Amino acid sequence: MKIAILTGAGISAESGLGTFRDVDGLWTQYDLNEVATPEGFARNPALVHDFYNARRANCAEASPNAAHAALAALAASAHDVTLITQNIDDLHHRAGSPDVIHMHGELMRALCAQCDARWDAPLVMSTQDPCPACRAEATRPDVVWFGEIPYHMDAIAHAVATADLFVAIGTSAEVYPAAGLVELAQGQTLEINLEPSARANAFDAHRFGPATQAVPAWVAELC
Description:
single chain, alpha/beta, Rossmann fold, SIR2/SIRT2 'Small Domain', 2 domains, three-stranded antiparallel β-sheet, 7 helices, 28% helix, 20% strand
């Protein structure tokens, strides 16, 4: 079976990585207009680096959970799996999933805003970090900020449209274009979530519960 899977923040929440909506979480301590937009970076790059340095440290301390492991096992099975994630963490990779499509970029990668070079980010980045390619002091996290175009959208749309089954896991379905991917699906659709998302009515079937329980149970049935 050809399966396209979209994962959101809910799959990493049980690994200790907060979502946008966590009360008193890391995101609530900052104005997102200041730390997650190109304009915010232009105004105060040091603040943006401080924010992502904290997120990078949080990510480095986290470990993949049972849901990440189950999806890695599914990718190693006889099924043809395309794994797409809205998350910028690297937990899918560390769990063993190959070829993860990061539509919102990767926290553990750096990008030169001047020449577009990309490389593995150090745990702590600063405004003085030179680009290894052009030496400009214009490095930023390789993540997609509000107002920017997500990565790999053509490949993502093709994978979803040609899949026998499209599955959305741990996503609120409130951030576009990810929230609209279910409309591209030609096969069956399934939502796995802690609770119904904003687009729950667009899916053919649903499974509700913590990702560490619901995802391994679903994968066990397929494998």
